[in-house]
Design a protein that fits this description.
The complex is a heterodimer of chains A (109) and B (116). Chain A has 109 residues and is mostly beta strands. Chain A is built from no helices and eleven strands. In chain A, the strands form two sheets. In chain A, strands 2, 4, 5, 9, 10 and 11 form a six-stranded mixed beta sheet that branches. A five-stranded antiparallel beta sheet of chain A has the order 1-3-8-7-6, with no helix packed on it. In chain B, strands 2, 4, 5, 6, 9, 10 and 11 form a seven-stranded mixed beta sheet that branches. Chain B has a four-stranded antiparallel beta sheet with strand order 1-3-8-7, with no helix packed on it. The chains are: A mainly beta (109), B mainly beta (116). Chains A and B meet through strand 5, strand 9 and strand 10 of A and strand 5 and strand 10 of B.
Chain lengths: 109, 116
């Protein structure tokens, strides 16, 4: 069963703008991860946030986690053409990690 | 530092044929995962291993699918006989740990499988 659901399914923005993607999940978690997938490639880990953390930064990425709402957001600031990709949240469900279906992000020149 | 290596990158075969996908995980990673990705169903976990032992194969769709990990540096996913609905991209991933100390998973670039 799907644990994480990303929103929106697709997003197109102008280069330089900020992109925000959201993830909602159903059951309690120990941590939540965000991954990026470029076309024709495997997923690449971006950032992991633990359940006792509320916000985490990595370069132009900012991730928030609200365990009371069972939701997370990924913000990419000052977007670049190279950020065009699909972005997935992944939550732990027991010993497994369950991926959402992703948000397809397209950065327009 | 070599990442997860999968082969072949592309496979096209006729239905009924046996298909074998191969994976070499990152050295030192204790966990290995096989996923299938389709537009309709997204990324599905098929099976995962810990220290070469299959832990959870509940995602394997049918008995036509089997996976082995004979040693720490090699795993195979086999489909026999293959069917057109098996067409998908199959990913292998490895990680150091799971559970509360969950470490990131490192993915290969996948095998794009087309069954005609």
């Amino acid at each position: 069963s799907q644990q994480g659901e990303e929103d929106p399914q697709a997003l197109s923005i102008q280069e330089g703008e900020n992109a925000t993607m959201n993830c909602s999940y159903k059951t309690s978690i120990n941590n939540l991860q965000w991954y990026r997938q470029n076309s024709g490639r495997g997923l690449v880990h971006l950032i992991l946030i633990r359940s006792n953390e509320r916000e985490k930064h990595s370069g132009r990425l900012r991730v928030t986690l609200d365990t009371s709402k069972k939701s997370s957001s990924l913000l990419i600031t000052a977007s670049r053409a190279a950020d065009t990709a699909s972005y997935f949240c992944a939550t732990d469900q027991g010993d497994k990690i369950i991926f959402g279906k992703g948000t397809r992000l397209h950065i327009l020149p | 530092d070599a990442g997860v290596i999968q082969s072949p990158r592309h496979e096209v075969t006729e239905m009924g044929q046996e298909v074998t996908l191969r994976c070499k995980p990152i050295s030192g990673h204790d966990y290995l995962f096989w996923y299938r990705q389709t537009m309709m169903r997204g990324l599905e976990l098929l099976i995962y291993f810990n220290n070469n032992v299959p832990i959870d194969d509940s995602g394997m769709p049918e008995d036509r699918f089997s996976a082995k990990m004979p040693n720490a540096s090699f795993s195979t996913l086999k489909i026999q006989p293959s069917e057109p609905r098996d067409s998908a991209v199959y990913f292998c991933a490895s990680s150091l740990s799971l559970g509360e100390s969950n470490q990131p998973q490192h993915f290969g670039d996948g095998t794009r499988l087309s069954i005609l």
